[in-house]
Amino acid sequence: MLEMNNISKVYQSDMVQTHALREFNLSVNEGEFIAVTGPSGSGKTTFLNIAGMLEPYTGGQYLLDGTDVGKLNDNALAELRNQKIGFIFQGFNLIPDLNLYENIEVPLRYRGIKSNERKRRIEECLEQVGLAARAKHLPQQLSGGQQQRVAIARALAGKPRFLLADEPTGNLDSLMARQVMELLEQINRDGATIIMVTHDPDLARRAPRNIQVVDGQLADFSLYQGAPEIIT
Ligand code: ADP
Ligand code: ADP
C-alpha cells in the first residue's frame, strides 16, 4: 500500500518558488490500476517521481508498505526502490548500442543478480511482452510500440510490486498505445499495482480508477458519482 499524507513539494530556483504539490493526499491499495491526468505543469511528474523515491518531498508523510520514506537514508531508499518499484517513461530510455537482452540485463547486473538468474528473468520477461524472438535485435530495429514493450520487460525483470508509468504511450500511435495498455492491464492482473500518467482520455477511462492533479492537488473521481470530465 502507498499512502501520501499532506505531501508538499516546493522547488526553489533563484528567487522563484514553485509549489509543485500542496496538501497532496492519496491512498493506493495493492493491485490497483490508476490513471493520473491533469493539465501540463499541474504536478503529475512530480507526484510520480516522489512516489518512486526519485525525488525528495518538502513536507508531509509518505508511507510505502508501511515504511516511512522520509526517514530513510540514500542507501535504504535505493534498496526499497529496487525492491518495490519499476519505472516506464515516455521516451523508453533504451541504450541504443545494446541489444534487447542486454538492455534488460543492465539493471539486473547493477543489482548484483547472478548470471543464470538474470538469463531466466530476461527470457521470461521478453516472452511476456511478446518479443522473445527479438532478443538479439537493437532498439532501432523495432517499432516504437515494441521498444516500449522492451522498456516494460526491463521494469518487470526487477519484479516490482508498483509499476510507475509516465506517459508510457506518449510517443506511440493509437494502435500501439492500445497494445501497450493491454500489456499493462495484463501485468496488473498478474498482481502489480500500476500508476500511469497519461494525456490520453481514452486510455485513462479504461483504468479502474482515475485521479486528476490540478494545481498540485488531487481530485479523486473514485470518490464521486458519475463519469469524470477528463482534462488533459
Ligand atoms: P511535462 O509537462 O510533459 O511533464 P516536464 O516534466 O519535462 O514536462 O516539465 C514540466 C515543467 O517543468 C516544464 O514547464 C519545465 O519547464 C519545468 N521544469 C522542468 N525542470 C525544470 C527545472 N530544472 N527548473 C525549472 N523548471 C523546470
Ligand atoms: P506535470 O507533470 O503535471 O506537467 P510537473 O510535475 O512536471 O507537472 O511540474 C509541476 C510544477 O513544478 C510546474 O510548475 C513545473 O514548472 C515545476 N517544476 C518541475 N520540476 C521542476 C524543477 N526541477 N525545478 C523547478 N520547478 C520545477
TrEMBL record:
One of its GO terms (molecular function) is transmembrane transporter activity. It comes from the Bacteria. GO terms for cellular component: plasma membrane; transmembrane transporter complex. Keywords: ATP-binding, Nucleotide-binding, Transport. Pfam families: ABC_tran. Gene3D superfamilies: P-loop containing nucleotide triphosphate hydrolases. Coiled coil: none annotated. InterPro entries: AAA+_ATPase, ABC_transporter-like_ATP-bd, ABC_transporter-like_CS, ABC_transpr_LolD-like, MacB-like_ATP-bd, P-loop_NTPase. Residues 2-232 form the ABC transporter domain. Signal peptide: none annotated. Belongs to the ABC transporter superfamily. Macrolide exporter (TC 3.A.1.122) family. This is ABC transporter, ATP-binding protein. It comes from Pseudoalteromonas tunicata D2.
